[in-house]
Amino acid sequence: MKLFIIPKRRKGYTLIELSVVLVLVVLIASTLVSMLSQQVQFYTWWNTQRFIAEEAPLANNIVVRLFAKADTFRTVTNAGATSMQLGFVQNNGTTLYGVISYNAGTSSLQYSYDGGAAWNIASGLSAANFNTVGNTLQFTLTGPYGGQVTYAATPAL
Questions:
Q1: Residue 27 domain flag
Q2: Is 5 a member of any domain?
Q3: Which of 3, 77, 123, 152 could serve as a FRET partner for 61 with CA atoms 20 to 30 Å apart?
Q4: Where are the alpha helices (DSSP H) in the chain?
Q5: Which positions, given as ranges, span the membrane (predicted)?
Q6: Residue 129 lies in a domain
């Protein structure tokens, strides 16, 4: 009678176990690389939308308040700067003027009141267009990646 002797287990892993682990490591690594790539693409896209998401609402707040208080307006284009002059009638009948201007050299939109210091409304713009259609002012801001915001207003009555 022969005895069946079970050989002692050796330390280590079988080829199948190593293959399974290697496949799992490759799957996890490719998933992580894919997630990183997607995150980079999203971050790039978010930077292209930064004007619409961050700058435009702030500019909207300032411009809407100015348009609501203005009694008159006119658009002016001169030597690389486009501007809009707003008139504010005071209680004593005099008119003080504010100017919203876009300078292509600095890519910024600024507001100055009665010849005072200029306040920055928005920066990093690629264009700003002021148009008068009938009695309505159309004001379009274009962000660095082409995002546009258009405002329209009529003078206060």
A1: no
A2: no
A3: 77
A4: 15-48, 50, 56-69
A5: 12-33
A6: yes
How far is 6 from 22, CA to CA, in rounded Å? 30
Tokens 């609402």 found at:
57
Q: How many CB atoms lie within 10 A of CB 86?
A: 23
Residues ≥6 apart with Cβ < 8 Å to 146:
126
71 within 8 A of 155, measured Cβ to Cβ: yes
pLDDT tens digits for range 98-141 = 999 888 888 889 999 887 888 888 888 888 888 888 878 888 88
Please state, in angstroms and rounded to a whole number, the distance separating the CA atoms of residues 59 and 141: 9
Residue 98 lies in a domain: yes
Q: How far apart are CA 44 and CA 1, in angstroms?
A: 77
Q: How many domains, the chain?
A: 1
> Which stretches of 58-113 are assigned E, i.e. beta strand?
72-78, 81-89, 95-103, 108-113
User: Which residues span the domain enclosing 70?
Assistant: 50-153
